[in-house]
Structures are given as structure tokens and as C-alpha cells.
Amino acid sequence: MADLSGPTASLALGTWSHHREGEPREAGSGAVEQGPVIELHAAGKTYRTGSVEFEALRGVDLAIRQGEYVAIMGPSGSGKSTLMNILGCLDVLTTGQYRLAGDDVGDLDEEDLAAIRNHQIGFVFQQFHLLPSLSAWRNVELPLTYRRVPADERRARATAALERVGLGDRLANRPGELSGGQQQRVAVARALVGEPAMILADEPTGNLDSASTEDVLGLFDDLHAQGRTIVLITHELEVAERARRIVRVRDGLIQSDTLTSGVAA
């Protein structure tokens, strides 16, 4: 696998690298010993339809440190998708607090939230969300287009991101010319191209066969080993166990929060 390390990430609301020289790293895990990137305090989310209210999250407390690889699990209706939307700044809390890189997300307007989504979070979805008419490198460059990065730099960075996920020889291929696993690699490259603080993956193997699933999970393993912060939403235990920590959600609450057997002592 190609080297998946990247330069320091410059963020909209703060600046830190995914690994700073001289800072300790947990042996064998890629985790960095420092303050949380994600902090949820008494986080609640209530949806209202007419006179009916539904509590999707109920007083959730959660902290995720830079460099951690965390899987969030739960059955349908458990609140894990709502939690993902909150972490990804796709939705906002009804009650409580969400701090990302030390900044209170609740104080931000939609324009600021969009900037966070574009600069600080790399999204990987089950459905890939690639544009079928565009080549792999043009799909990958899209987040940089929204940042108004010059064309030459966009092409260079998209090419480098695809090379980092092992698709340097597929730059000109459109999604329909790629396998499911390769399409998901393109999606991961797109998530990486902006050097985000966090990779947020929502059921990233849900549409893949077993061989492609192993391929993509191996890529996440490599990213974690290089110090990336990865939050993986899944309902599959075998997928979750590739992470170093599993947070189980049920009825809008955190049911358990445990380290996996793969964590170095």
C-alpha cells in the first residue's frame, strides 16, 4: 500500500496536524495522546412532526481523540444515524453541546457549518456519491473546487490522493468503469484530498462484496496507522471490530463504549 501520510491540516476554526513531531503516539494504534477532537456533552436531538416529538438522542456524552479509530454501532432506530449527522455537522443539537477541535458548533451559522464540512470533515458514504460523467480525478478534486483552489493545484492534489489509495493508474476512469471497491477508494481519496481533521464513514462497506470490503477496510487500517482520526458508522460487528474502539448506541443513548482486542496495551 502506498504511503498514506499527509501534510498538516489547516482548518477553518483551528489548526493542528494529524501527528506533530515530538508528541507521543499510542504504540501500534496510530492514536495521539492529546485533547479530544470531538466532545459531546449532554447532547440531545428531538424531532417534531406536528404535535409528535421523537427523541433521537438523549443526553449523550462522547469524546474522541485525535488519531482514534472508532466504530459507532446500533440497530435501526437506535440513534446512530442521528449521531453521525451531528458529528458531520449535517444537523444540529436540540440540547447540549458539540465541540469540534475546541470550537462550539452550536454557535455557528449554516455558512460556517458548510465551511467545517468542506475543510474539517472527509465524508465516505455507502452509496459512494460519485458523479458518473466525471473521471476519477475530477470526482476527487470537487471539494477543492468549492474552496476555489487553482486548477493546476486541484489536479495535482487529486492525482496524489488517488495514488495514495492505490488508484494512480485509474485517474481517467469514470465510476462505471471501476469496481465497487475501486469506486469506494475514489470516495476515500475525495475525502482525503482536503487533508481533513476527521474521516467520517457511513456504512462504507454496505454495498461491497467480501473481497472489496476487506480491501476498503485495509485502507482504513492504513489510514489509522498514519494517524488519521476515523469515525465509522456500521451495523456489522465484523466491520466494527476492525476499529480500535466500539461505541454502541441504543434508544438514543450510549449503551457501551469499549476498546477492541486489537488495541495495544
Automatic annotation (TrEMBL):
Region annotated Disordered, chain positions: 1-31
Keyword line: ATP-binding, Hydrolase, Nucleotide-binding, Transport
Broad class of enzyme this protein falls into: hydrolase
GO cellular component: membrane protein complex; plasma membrane
ABC transporter domain: residues covered: 38-263
Molecular function GO labels: ATP binding; ATP hydrolysis activity; transmembrane transporter activity
Protein name per Swiss-Prot or TrEMBL: Macrolide export ATP-binding/permease protein MacB
Organism taxonomic ancestry: Bacteria, Bacillati, Actinomycetota, Actinomycetes, Micrococcales
